[in-house]
Amino acid sequence: MPDIDYCPSRVIFAGYFDVKTLIFRQLSCLSQNKPSWTVLVVAVLLATACSQFRKFEKSDDWKVKYQAGLHYYEKKDYYHTAILFEQILPIVRGLPEGEKVEFYLAYCQFYEKTYLLASNQFKTFFENYGRSQMAEEAYYMYAYSLFVASPAENLDQKSSIEAMGAMQTYVNQFPYGKFAEKANEVISATQQKLEKKGFDNARQYLKLKYYQAAVIAFENFKKGFPDSKYLEEITYLKVVAQYKLAQQSILSKQRERYASTVEFYKELVDNYPKSNFIKEVESYYSDSLEKLNKQKTSATTNLKS
User: Fold this and answer.
1) Minimal CA–CA distance to 240: which of 198, 288, 195?
2) Which residues, including other chains, have CB under 8 Å from residue 91's CB and lie 6 or more apart?
3) Can you say whether the dihedral through the CA atoms of 157, 159, 162, 164 is positive or negative?
4) Does any domain span residue 130?
5) Contact yes or no for 257/245 (Cβ under 8 A)
6) Per-residue pLDDT at 159
7) Count of the separate structural domains present in the chain
8) Its pTM surpasses 0.90
9) Which of 89, 125, 161, 271 is 20 to 30 A from 253 (CA-CA)?
10) Is residue 240 within 8 Å of residue 260, measured between CB atoms?
11) Residue 15 CA to chain centroid, in angstroms?
12) For residue 59, is it within any domain?
């Protein structure tokens, strides 16, 4: 963090940080022999510290709040920093101090784990201070905050998609930036999360016995993730879903659907000749051929009749 310029208002709140130091000293001295006194001393000192913060909060001098906020930030007290900086933000916007206030406020929200608020604040900073030396970092943190806020893969991934898009924009805009490597890692991690989400969704149709929907979902997955590690299993599951669909189909649609089962099986064998899944669907392939031959024989007999 940059050095803080001298300001007379620093004298006002220097005592607060002495109070915090005193708390720890008193704890180490008193907790060994007099626990009841320890509780009393801590309570008094904390009340004093709280009183000091209230003075900063109620001050009419924005510079007092600004300097106090910087000190709180140095002490990693992001909660109190955010309170003070939010109060003075409308005043300092456009001033030299405004850039630092807006940037640090975004980090306060990030460290307080309000990631969506942090993301919006970093984005606002980038839009307001696009020429700032901190602009690149702000845009990266905008995307990274979205990534951190994204839910587990079994939940809706709208924010993950937004995070990946924002991070890709960062890479495009700052291809040799200091966060480029981390940005690519985030993109890769998000891609894997979306891939797993898509795989689980497609497989869920099969579990629910929505076989036609499952086949369509497996096809869409292959188009959306052509390099996925799940492609072999997807190709196998597509054979299973198509065979189950053919089994429960009316007679007029069975021929077409058993024929598709045969084609999907051949696709599995051609693309993954050493796959362990082949043995699991060999019976589906054989039965589909048998059903097709019976229908062909039946159709020929009917024609002769």
Assistant:
1) 288
2) 62
3) negative
4) yes
5) yes
6) 84
7) 3
8) no
9) 271
10) no
11) 41
12) yes
